């Protein structure tokens, strides 16, 4: 707890610096990532983060130390080179884009490793932090680095906000953007540069392999909460910042623990929670609405069965007859019967289930919808009467009152369906 | 140059790894799953760590099983995310492999004092240690380099898998619907292939590292694909490229005194980009030839 207060009161200037840095880079990565995600170029970020390695080594070779200006420039050069190589090879050969990305990624990384082993032989002591570039450790970032990375992240955020409309058009409707006279090629160049910069600023804190997550995961999670770009950007940024701070805190509390993996774990957790519980497209939400629909269908079918028993002159059906109507679904049937009883649609007397007045009305409505639709199919679509049952079986559950009125009107308030069954009318209404 | 038994061993081992990777890579590439191979090679990390914890050794069957299971799990995960969650496929791949890789690194860091497994060896590997890492039997008899045996077994298994299921692989790669209609179990073929990819990753990561497995899996087939469309020629060319790459890679590394695996990937890159440039120059020339031929007719 003490550590918690110490960390979040930001009294330690080092902590404050690290948190500021990671917040800035989380924001820039999430913003860039949202556009790349929508542009279906999520894995290009992965390629860039691997391709940064030879550039970093090259910068070491030239400058001989960990000067952040050199490192950023070196990383930017090879990172940018990799994106242009990918576009070039994908455009001029028959190779698929994923093959090109994987090839470019591994070749650049291989060259980087060759250079790194070269560097290690020089025995330069200042190289000791080089492995942070592979695995990432925000805590290892010091003052001078922070100024450079923080400034770059801020620049990325500002440029994206300034060119928000243009990038939006470019991602969603490229040909339209071209036709209204936007310089799409130049915008793309600008955007690619921003993407490379975002990767470069994040590498030292997050690490090469995991940088891809910072670009992809916030956007993917945000997509499950909204379809609007502006909102999606905001949600992605929030997710990313929260994970960044939590990750930094964990690596502060647990010594020797790199920041990157924890940031990614928190981000992935948020993403999976979004996939399952998002109110719009979450797996759980979809599952619940599917189950509710199935329950409604089952309820409708029980009411219909009781209604047809009434039509044949029976008072009701014995509960065993009701269960026998739905073999293998006794559990669901029991649930539905209990619920219908509670809602006052049916009542049970001496093991015979009958419809209440309210139940007759509701069951009559379903049967009416079924028969109206059958009639509509035969009258307007020329479908043989013996072929209309299945379709009506589906539609009876979803026809709205407005549609019902329309159907009734178009069919001129019919009395009988194609099978000469009487269409039940609601006496209260008409 | 005198015959150097160490060089011979390293080049042979490298070639065998390159052949196993390349053979699987041909099918990965044709199925547009190149990045899935990349993802699996990162995602097996937690499996490796768990297996290491269980068995206490860096070799052996536990390792293969652990990594194989996690590799297949990663594939299932990717399929689940893109089919059931309806996430676009590149994002599914990205999220799956980064989270699994992060879990793996955290496990390694937590257990850093207890196990002799460091992050670098998983990412880079060092094939130069092959000649000194010997397989010594219980009786103390030296049987030769361990990794060479491993890669030999791996190559035999990969070749066995591909020969045995060649028809299934071919049909399901080129026409999935057709394969399904004639009753081939495409799901099983897919998981078989992914299992082989995971297994190959594990058995080679000690030697060439996770990312360079990807280099050997994707770059030779991609290069070969630019020269031919015929599947048999594609396979033969990939194997040939794999051998040349290990050979040249070794001598490049020897000359530069650097990582052999990295040098192999760099050589592969030289072949790849040379081919792309040549193709770019050739395609207009061939088109020109074709048009003049038509005119003469």
Automatic annotation (TrEMBL), chain A:
The keyword Transport applies. InterPro entries: ABC_BtuC-like, ABC_TroCD, Fe_dep_repressor, Fe_dep_repressor_sf, Iron_dep_repressor, WH-like_DNA-bd_sf. The keyword Transport applies. Keywords: Cell membrane, Membrane, Transmembrane, Transmembrane helix, Transport. GO terms for molecular function: DNA-binding transcription factor activity; protein dimerization activity; transition metal ion binding. GO terms for cellular component: ATP-binding cassette (ABC) transporter complex. One of its GO terms (biological process) is transmembrane transport. Signal peptide: none annotated. It is found in: Cell membrane. Residues 356-424 form the Iron dependent repressor metal binding and dimerisation domain. Residues 410-430 are annotated as: Disordered. It is a multi-pass membrane protein. Residues 416-430 have a biased composition (Basic and acidic residues). Its main location: membrane. The chain crosses the membrane at residues 15-37, 43-62, 69-88, 100-119, 146-164, 189-217, 229-254, 260-277. It comes from the Bacteria. Belongs to the ABC-3 integral membrane protein family. This is Iron chelate uptake ABC transporter family permease subunit.
Automatic annotation (TrEMBL), chain B:
Its main location: membrane. The chain crosses the membrane at residues 6-30, 37-55, 61-81, 93-112, 147-166, 178-201, 207-227, 234-253, 259-278. It is a multi-pass membrane protein. GO terms for biological process: response to zinc ion; transmembrane transport. It holds the Pfam family ABC-3. It is found in: Cell membrane. Keywords: Cell membrane, Membrane, Transmembrane, Transmembrane helix, Transport. SUPFAM superfamilies: ABC transporter involved in vitamin B12 uptake, BtuC. GO terms for cellular component: ATP-binding cassette (ABC) transporter complex. CDD domains: TM_ABC_iron-siderophores_like. Belongs to the ABC-3 integral membrane protein family. This is Metal ABC transporter permease. It comes from Echinicola soli.
């Amino acid at each position: 707890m003490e550590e918690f207060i110490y960390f979040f009161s930001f009294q330690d200037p080092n902590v404050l610096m690290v948190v500021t840095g990671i917040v800035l880079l989380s924001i820039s990565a999430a913003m860039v990532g949202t556009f790349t995600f929508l542009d279906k170029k999520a894995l290009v970020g992965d390629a860039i983060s691997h391709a940064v390695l030879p550039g970093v080594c090259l910068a070491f070779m030239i400058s001989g130390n960990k000067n952040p200006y050199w490192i950023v420039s070196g990383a930017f050069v090879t990172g940018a080179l990799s994106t242009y190589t990918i576009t070039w090879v994908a455009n001029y050969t028959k190779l698929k884009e994923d093959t090109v990305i994987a090839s470019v990624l591994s070749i650049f990384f291989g060259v980087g490793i060759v250079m790194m082993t070269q560097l290690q032989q020089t025995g330069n002591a200042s190289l000791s932090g080089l492995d942070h570039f592979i695995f990432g450790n925000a805590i290892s970032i010091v003052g001078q680095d922070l100024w450079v990375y923080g400034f770059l992240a801020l620049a990325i955020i500002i440029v994206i906000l300034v060119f928000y409309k243009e990038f939006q058009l470019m991602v969603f409707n490229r040909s339209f953007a071209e036709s209204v006279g936007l310089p799409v090629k130049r915008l793309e160049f600008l955007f690619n540069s921003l993407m490379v910069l975002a990767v470069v600023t994040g590498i030292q804190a997050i690490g090469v392999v995991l940088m891809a997550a910072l670009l992809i995961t916030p956007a993917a999670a945000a997509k499950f909460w909204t379809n609007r770009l502006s909102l999606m950007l905001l949600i992605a940024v929030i997710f990313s910042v929260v994970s960044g701070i939590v990750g930094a805190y964990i690596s502060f509390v647990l010594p020797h623990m790199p920041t990157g993996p924890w940031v990614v774990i928190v981000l992935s957790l948020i993403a999976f929670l979004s996939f399952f519980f998002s109110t719009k497209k979450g797996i759980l939400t979809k599952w619940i609405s599917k189950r509710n629909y199935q329950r409604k269908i089952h309820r409708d079918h029980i009411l219909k069965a009781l209604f047809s028993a009434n039509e044949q002159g029976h008072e009701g059906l014995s509960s065993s007859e009701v269960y026998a109507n739905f073999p293998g679904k006794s559990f669901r049937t029991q649930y539905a019967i209990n619920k219908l009883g509670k809602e006052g649609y049916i009542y049970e007397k001496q093991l015979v289930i009958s419809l209440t007045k309210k139940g007759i009305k509701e069951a009559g409505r379903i049967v009416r919808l079924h028969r109206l639709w059958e009639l509509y199919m035969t009258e307007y679509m020329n479908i043989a009467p013996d072929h209309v049952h299945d379709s009506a079986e589906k539609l009876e559950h979803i026809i709205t009152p407005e549609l019902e009125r329309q159907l009734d009107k178009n069919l001129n308030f019919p009395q009988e369906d194609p099978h000469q069954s009487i269409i039940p009318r609601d006496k209260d209404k008409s | 140059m005198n015959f150097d038994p160490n060089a011979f061993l390293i080049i042979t081992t490298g070639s065998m790894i390159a052949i196993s990777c390349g053979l699987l890579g041909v099918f990965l590439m044709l199925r547009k799953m190149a990045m899935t191979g990349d993802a699996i090679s990162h995602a097996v990390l937690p499996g490796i760590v768990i297996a290491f914890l269980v068995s206490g050794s860096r070799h052996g069957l536990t390792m293969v099983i652990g990594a194989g299971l996690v590799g297949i799990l990663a594939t299932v995960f990717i399929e689940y995310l893109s089919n059931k969650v309806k996430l676009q496929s590149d994002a599914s791949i990205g999220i799956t492999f980064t989270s699994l890789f992060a879990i793996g690194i955290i496990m390694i860091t937590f257990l850093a004092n207890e196990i002799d497994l460091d992050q670098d060896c998983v990412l880079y590997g060092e094939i130069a240690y092959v000649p000194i890492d010997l397989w010594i039997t219980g009786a103390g008899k030296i049987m030769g380099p361990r990794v060479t045996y491993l890669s030999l077994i791996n190559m035999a298994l990969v070749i066995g898998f591909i020969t045995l299921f060649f028809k299934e692989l071919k049909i399901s790669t080129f026409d999935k619907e057709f394969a399904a209609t004639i009753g081939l179990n495409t799901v099983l073929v897919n998981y078989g292939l992914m299992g082989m990819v995971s297994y190959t990753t594990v058995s080679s990561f000690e030697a060439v590292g996770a990312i360079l497995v990807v280099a050997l899996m994707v770059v030779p087939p991609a290069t070969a694909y630019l020269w031919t469309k015929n599947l048999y020629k594609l396979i033969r060319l990939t194997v040939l490229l794999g051998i040349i790459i290990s050979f040249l890679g070794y001598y490049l590394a020897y000359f530069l005194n650097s990582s052999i695996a990295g040098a192999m990937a760099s050589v592969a890159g030289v072949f790849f980009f040379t081919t792309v440039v040549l193709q770019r120059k050739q395609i207009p020339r061939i088109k020109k030839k074709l048009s003049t031929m038509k005119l003469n007719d």
